[in-house]
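The pair is listed for reference:
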Amino acid sequence: MRFVIVTGMSGAGKTQAMRSLEDLGYFCVDNLPPTLIPKFAEACYQTEGKIDKIAVVVDIRGRKFFDDLFASLKVLKEHGYNDYEMLFLEATDEVLVKRYKESRRKHPLAPDGRILNGITIEKKKLKEVREKANYIIDTTKLSNKELNEEIITILGEQGQIETKLFVNVLSFGFKYGIPVDADLVFDVRFLPNPYYIAELKPYSGKDIPVREYVLSKDETKIFIDKLNDMLHFLLPNYKKEGKRQLIIAIGCTGGRHRSVAIANKIHEVLENSGYTVTIDHRDINEDVSRGAGKL
């Protein structure tokens, strides 16, 4: 089991570090009192491998409890849990002050005084902790993306899931609202509508008659070709910038015919191109269940 203790200066990026560790599959606990570390480690070890990567944040927010850190680490070793690692995050005083001013938060060691005074006190309290850290990351000039890459290098494993971009293709009906979590939205209401063909109306875009009707149109073929080109340009660049999930929404009026057929086709194209992609048809049964009219 990998047990990582994340600590360091307030404002140095511990919250972002924990997000990165969560993406790496770590079970994360923030602001755990050091006195509870041995009990927590014991509980995790007793899961028999079900929880095999743990990260806990321990810092001066724990106030008096933080002074118990070394005693707790000693207890860990006495119980045989001596393979823990410590990650220490820091930054220059100037950058820490700037981050506090931007967030408008008070320093925990100087709630009513100057931020710099709190940083100075904290640095002294953490001096011994820093000396015992396995890894030290200076986040002064790091973006969130760069910090994430540092953590992956130190605490990740090659080929882990976090390096992938997960794509979700979603069909929907504009009459029921644009999906609030969509990253890219495409409107296919310009295509001929199967709703107005009596023999196609009862079916959805998942059914062969509607699918063949929609995909056989010249407008559809041109649209899919252009969208395919755009996505194959965008997706690698989204991945390069650290995006982990992309939701592509395809909408028609009711979300039952055109959008479903197009979404299924895009899903097929991306899957055949090697992307990790899922499909969801949000409104495919809405008009059927509501007995509504125009699709």
Remarks:
- The chain has two domains: 2-162, 164-290.
- The domain at 2-162 is CATH 3.40.50.300 (Rossmann fold).
